[in-house]
Amino acid sequence: MLTLFHKPKTRSNSIMWLLEELGVPYETKEVTIRSMDGSGAIDPANPHPHGKVPALEHDGNRVFETGAIALYLTDLFPEKKLGPVPGEALRGEYLSWLFYRSGVLEPALMMRRLGVKHMQGAMGWAEASEVETVLNETLALRPYILGDSFSAADIVTGGGIVYLLRFKMLAETPVLTEYAQRLTSRPAFIKVMGDHT
Ligand SMILES: N[C@@H](CCC(=O)N[C@@H](CS)C(=O)NCC(=O)O)C(=O)O
């Protein structure tokens, strides 16, 4: 059984969205987490080493980090065609965009929001405006991150784009807005998120 450790309206919604796109059986265990306002607490039932969500348990495997969970799931269900498996075309592109959200997109835009100056050459991510350029150039060429087909990279990094647009951390452009509309109109997205991201 797949068990998702979950808190509504958090990043674990992305994994629930993916599980719904996959159409596989799973259970959720709702846990408490620490909040920005100082409320909340780590839930001892949560296997995540930092008490965060999402975390996944499956057949004795613990998986944490949204990108890693997405990769685990799409490799587990290759027949669902939501992520290229080893040996398939676009596998490298897929892994790159899965890691891009937590490695580049989130830190770059969070640093800008916090007013921290980017130090070229010293940080493992690019400056926020450069990230915006790359996203716009990529998505101007194709409807989804990997091309014509939707994949879990659209849930992980694309879901991040939806969230960051909503909270005005990413500049709105026709390319990104139309991409976000493609994602948020998907039945599985609406089932999990409603009008929330
Ligand atoms: N890099 C992690 C981030 C996970 C994360 O920060 N989740 C938030 C909820 S959106 C959380 O659990 N926060 C509680 C805390 O920071 O203790 C991932 O992508 O899975």
UniProtKB/TrEMBL annotation:
Stored PANTHER family: GLUTATHIONE S-TRANSFERASE GSTA, GLUTATHIONE S-TRANSFERASE-RELATED
EC number(s) given by UniProt: 2.5.1.18
GO molecular function: glutathione transferase activity
Name of the top EC class for this enzyme: transferase
Occurrences of domain GST C-terminal (ranges): 87-197
Protein name: Glutathione S-transferase
Pfam families, A to Z: GST_N
